[in-house]
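Kindly inspect this today.
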Amino acid sequence: MKLSVQDYRRPGARRGGFTLVEILVSLSVAVFVLGAIATIAVMSAKVMRKNVLAGDAVTATRLFQEHLNKEITMAVSSPDAVAPQYSGGNGATPERFSRLTYRYTVGPLAKIVGNTPHSEVNIVVNCPATLVPRIGDYYMMDSPNLGTGIAIANVQDFRAPNVDGNVTLTLAQALDAGTIGPPEDAANGNLVTIQRQRAYQTEVSTKYPALFEVRWYMTTASTTPPAVGDTEPYLVISSNLAPSAQYPFIKLPGPGVTPEPAVGWEFTYAAAINEGQFIGGKTGFYEANHSEGLIMP
């Protein structure tokens, strides 16, 4: 007997599967969706990167601001304060400057050991443990009155760490050469102040060439680039100053030709603008904020 299989499909119904057109349309939609997801992922990564850069800029520049506040406050609050000096002006009116040089008092007061003739350049002083004079510091006294001080050319300090004791200082010139008024011997027990000269300097950033960095010199014996024997190279305090902040320091005019022993500063900080396109196509999108201040005695 012959068996047959009956086809129960409805008239006009097609067999299972997809046509080529359907497959192509499905693939096109899938590629479009995946492309959109990839674009969103890339944009999100870029936004996160820019946010990180902006956060780093804010943090680095806040540290600079705090560093400046601490250093200059000590400088202008010193009883023997020497007015800060400015250089690297931009020639504008009012003029702003790229370099700030200042002094602050190092440690507690020292005392003269023995009566010292005014013609002498070698001075023995008794220094507290926390006072460590260095070459390039300034030796200052009220009696005799040494004015803005005499630079220290050499230091012989044989004390053990954290111990009081005598230190021999060799001055760049004799006491009488730096004295204001008649020459006067330094009497045993007279008080001595040691001041250190430091500086801030803005330069093109070595980390982000489109921005500027702030270099801090612990002593102005340092130079750029460091010279032979230079033991105090600069530290980069911030690499995130905007190009408009190349001249951040402002001199306050005083009564007459002498400037106020005060420091004004003003700058804008920015994220690195060489890290690709910023949102909206504007490189200044993440140029965060403007900062300014004034530090007075």
